[in-house]
């Protein structure tokens, strides 16, 4: 056999080996097809959070207070879906690691980013205000990451539900939204925010009201505060 024929045989054998080693391609939309019902409910939580952010952004463009009400209204619906996804997952006994990660990401949008953007929309817009709001969102990120990292080792009941929260859960940020909703309903927003502006140093101003976000974020990352899970 000639050397050229041997090279052709070797190349054909190599191609056959490569074809055997390649894994079969997954079907289209395989990830979506593998979603459980609870995962779809969790995604609806994320949808509510994103719609809330868009509502706040629309208000910045339109100055129409109805956009603020829309932004605030989506967040309680997000809480409803956040409440339901865990119940459905335990009822059907088909929770997954993917669902856990989806839940944390959706919570971050609905109860971390959306309330912070709402605060900016209603008037907390100074540079120091945005630093505090960023701290609040970062506390939410840290709290959710800690929960995901420790949930496997936390005590659970017979249904698989953990016994307590370490630090306040991130959905408690809806209490901040309720406070802002009260002020908006009474016309106390933008330049009429309670507490007005405080000058910390020349050129550095802050709204004292933004400190409720700092307090909420700090409580979320507390390691000594334990709250029984309902």
UniProtKB/TrEMBL annotation:
Keyword set includes Lyase: no
Q: Which GO terms describe its molecular function?
A: CDP-diacylglycerol-serine O-phosphatidyltransferase activity
User: Which residue stretches belong to region Disordered?
Assistant: 1-27
The enzyme class is transferase
Q: Which pathway is it part of?
A: Phospholipid metabolism; phosphatidylethanolamine biosynthesis; phosphatidylethanolamine from CDP-diacylglycerol: step 1/2; Lipid metabolism
InterPro entries recorded: CDP-alcohol_PTase-I, CDP-diaglyc--ser_O-PTrfase, CDP-OH_P_trans, CDP-OH_PTrfase_TM_dom, CDP_ALCOHOL_P_TRANSF_CS
Q: What is its EC number?
A: 2.7.8.8
Keyword line: Endoplasmic reticulum, Lipid biosynthesis, Lipid metabolism, Membrane, Phospholipid biosynthesis, Phospholipid metabolism, Transferase, Transmembrane, Transmembrane helix
Q: Where are the transmembrane segments?
A: 35-56, 130-151, 163-185, 205-225
Q: What family does the Swiss-Prot or TrEMBL record give for this protein? A: Belongs to the CDP-alcohol phosphatidyltransferase class-I family.
- UniProt cross-references to NCBIfam families, sorted A to Z: pssA
Name listed for the protein in its UniProt record = CDP-diacylglycerol--serine O-phosphatidyltransferase
